[in-house]
Amino acid sequence: MAWIESLQKAIDYMEEHLLDNLTIEEIAKQANASPFHFQRTFALLTDISVGEYLRRRRLTLAAQELSRTDCKIIDIAHKYGYDTPEAFAKAFRRQHGLTPSEARKCKGKLKSYNRLMIQVSLKGAEPMQYKIVERDCFQVVGIKREFSFCDGENLVGIPLFWQKVNEDGTDDLLFKLNNGQIKGVLGVCVDKSDARSEKMMDYWIATEYEGDTPNGLLKLEIPASKWAVFEVHGPMPHAMQQAWKQIFSEWFPSSGYEHAGTPELEVYTDEDPSSPDLYSEIWIPVK
Predict the structure, then answer these.
(1) Same-domain pairing of 142 and 272
(2) Residues 150 and 68 occupy one common structural domain
(3) DSSP alpha helices (H): ranges in 31-184?
(4) DSSP-derived secondary structure letter, 151
(5) Matching Pfam families, A to Z (predicted)?
(6) Residue 195: what pLDDT?
(7) Claim to verify: residue 139 and residue 258 sit in the same structural domain
(8) How high is the pLDDT of residue 120?
(9) Which CATH number do you get for residue 56?
(10) Whether 178 and 265 share a structural domain
(11) What CATH number does residue 137 fall under?
(12) Residue 19: CB atoms within 10 Å
């Protein structure tokens, strides 16, 4: 329950400081999590980024203020973080489907995004197959790209990265190179929160490989860890997305384990990704 309470504390902090210039570092600190892992967990559980949640809430309150008060539109724009009336009007129309002036005259419907509240519901009837594995450090080889995890940029960029790798034959090369204990091609998330670029992450598409690094590829050492290894059954990407959500919404709150903060792995086979019988895995370092 401490994990759920920490998440609610971070949400409450966002609500109490909606009019401030919040940073992901300040918010994550309330949950005793790194910016990377808080942003990732929040997006998995809510299907939106922290930045998008803040935007939706601010524009919801701005709409209420427009319809209830006589405050000038430019003053409301500044209050909710917009430098110009034009920027405010553009964001307002994108959320509500009408302009601030139309909202003031009650000429359309407004869209309200309400404050998030964590509720414990009865779940878990659907079993999760997992095992705990301890491994020494091991090496993977592959290619990587850097993504920002602010505003969910990584959620857009990573699928495009996979698309390119599938099209240019890199995934075929990685399957052929694979000679380690983990069979398949890996998606590896590496948190760079402690590095100079505090809001960036590295995403690797790689495979476990013992030997000298092949030409054109990079090497990453995965640290010794205790791993929770989850089975994933079903077509991509839905099955993988659902498994992640179930892990963070059901397994972590009740397991007694915490995320160890080191890279996590998705393991993909070379089977048909649309097959209902497709088998994949998620490896999460735990403590």
Answers:
(1) yes
(2) no
(3) 35-46, 50-68, 73-79, 85-96, 100-104, 153-168, 170-177
(4) G
(5) Cass2, HTH_18
(6) 47
(7) yes
(8) 56
(9) 1.10.10.60
(10) yes
(11) 3.20.80.10
(12) 11
Q: Which residues contact 279 (CB under 8 A, 6 or more apart)?
A: 231, 232, 233, 269, 271
Same domain, 153 and 30: no
Which long-range contacts (C-beta less than 8 Å, at least 24 apart) are formed by 3-9?
3/252, 3/253, 3/258, 4/118, 4/120, 4/253, 6/30, 6/31, 6/32, 6/33, 7/31, 7/41, 7/42, 7/45, 7/118, 8/117, 8/118
Name the amino acid, one letter, at 129.
Q
And the tokens for 31?
A: 């949950």
> Does residue 143 share a domain with residue 274?
yes
Name the E strands within the chain.
Answer: 130-135, 138-148, 185-191, 200-208, 218-222, 225-233, 264-268, 279-286
149: in domain: yes
* Separation of CA 110 from chain center: 28
Beta bridge partners of residue 202, listed in sequence order:
146, 190
Whether residue 227 contacts residue 281, with contact meaning beta carbons closer than 8 Å, is answered with no
Range of the domain at 65: 2-104
In order along its 287 residues, the chain shows pLDDT tens digits of 566 788 889 999 999 999 999 999 999 999 988 888 888 888 888 888 899 999 999 999 999 999 999 999 999 999 999 999 999 999 999 999 999 999 998 888 999 999 988 765 545 557 889 999 999 999 999 999 998 877 667 778 888 999 999 999 999 999 999 999 999 999 999 988 654 445 788 999 999 999 999 999 999 999 999 999 999 999 998 999 899 988 988 888 878 898 998 999 999 999 999 999 999 999 999 99
